[in-house]
Amino acid sequence: MQRHLISAADLTRDDAIQILDTAEEMARVADRPIKKLPTLRGRTVVNLFFEDSTRTRISFEAAEKRLSADVINFSAKGSSVSKGESLKDTAQTLEAMGVDAVVIRHGASGAPYRLANSGWIDAAVINAGDGTHQHPTQALLDAFTMRRRLVGRDAGLGQDLAGKRITIVGDILHGRVARSNVDLLHTLGAEVTLVAPPTLLPVGIESWPCEISYDLDATLPKSDAVMMLRVQRERMNAAFFPTEREYSRRYGLDGDRMARMPEHAIVMHPGPMVRGMEITAEVADSDRCTAIEQVANGVSTRMAVLYLLLGGAVFDAKNAPAATHTRTEEK
Ligand code: NCD
């Protein structure tokens, strides 16, 4: 494993499988009465969020706390960043406080890479989403969810996703989830098809290791998992499709469309969902939709990433001691 996690493309097949297997061990900790391990006791992790987030921020915080790290939350709103402070100055301030890892979400593609390679800080850097570029822990938690559902919780250990057919639908141009997933799923041997209006596909998509289709109905029967993505309105500066109704009609997943999927196939969504746009409430609330499961799996996956980046070896839940300090002591 490298020292930082900047892009899903940096992970080898062995790295990815090690993270997914470690995440399964971490998930066992969630089944215990005390869901806490002493592993990162005395280590400090900063969550540096320059962009809005619900799931990712809370999920990282939960993962850090379950590993007993000291957690500092920083959001750009209400900080000196709104007074014009640069990323460099913010980073050096954190360095001066002695942090061991920085989890960063930033609107600019490449910000985590800059932070990791600039020499401003010594800490391990984990990308929690940068612009339209990458969101590697999302890809890992998605792969974890697919492996569990499509291969099996125990049967999946040590396995990749060879031959699994994954369809990703929606705003590929402005999103970072599709890009990260294509990279990781390719490394894990899955066959990926992207479905989107031509206007929501990036230039150079031909070189991505996946198929492209404009026909959702034709792709659904050949999918083991269908991942619906949000249209990223906040990143759009033009009209990319005629109307929302027209978009939903062609690229939205409703009950009728879901019925075209094979019986074992799952519907995935990284959140936030815009019900009525890319997914109907009927599909979002159905048993086949793993959106909530993905959130739970996100905590285990991020625990695994933090554990491995901050120097852990093979993790064995059975023999790991529980954290000895209780909530009262922490106060
Ligand atoms: C995604 C993101 O922020 O890239 N959400 C997430 O991390 N769960 C996708 C989105 O915003 O649509």
From TrEMBL:
Its EC number is 2.1.3.2. Keywords: Pyrimidine biosynthesis, Transferase. Residues 163-309 form the Aspartate/ornithine carbamoyltransferase Asp/Orn-binding domain. InterPro entries: Asp/Orn_carbamoyltranf_P-bd (IPR006132), Asp/Orn_carbamoylTrfase (IPR006130), Asp/Orn_carbamoylTrfase_sf (IPR036901), Asp_carbamoyltransf (IPR002082), Asp_carbamoyltransf_Asp/Orn-bd (IPR006131). GO terms for biological process: 'de novo' pyrimidine nucleobase biosynthetic process; 'de novo' UMP biosynthetic process; amino acid metabolic process. It catalyses: carbamoyl phosphate + L-aspartate = N-carbamoyl-L-aspartate + phosphate + H(+). Pathway: Pyrimidine metabolism; UMP biosynthesis via de novo pathway; (S)-dihydroorotate from bicarbonate: step 2/3. L-aspartate binds at residues 83, 176, 230. Belongs to the aspartate/ornithine carbamoyltransferase superfamily. ATCase family. This is Aspartate carbamoyltransferase. It comes from Streptomyces spongiae.
